[in-house]
Amino acid sequence: MEEIVIRYKNQRVLEVLKDLTKYFDFSIVAPDKKKKVNKTDSINGVTVVLGDPSVNTSDLTDIFTDKGLDAGKIRAEQWRKN
Fold first, then answer.
1. Which of 14, 27, 38, 74 counts the most CB atoms within 10 A of its CB?
2. For 43-68, how does the pLDDT look when each residue is reduced to its tens digit (9 = 90+)?
3. How many Å apart are CA 54 and CA 50, to the nearest integer?
4. How far apart are CA 15 and CA 28, in angstroms?
């Protein structure tokens, strides 16, 4: 069975779609409201704890802007295998 997602702003749109289900062969399924957010993930066996997206990091912009930092160079120098 094929599936599509319809986003709507007006509750009347949902009512019209429900009425159309009587005449056409489709169904309406409401999404789960309680979508579980996975706080950890695993990449190649290493557990990664996801950050909080609501944290405001704009204050760090002044610290790191125009410092000539290169992420590749930092990784090569600081994350070497011993």
1. 14
2. 888 888 888 878 888 888 888 888 88
3. 12
4. 11
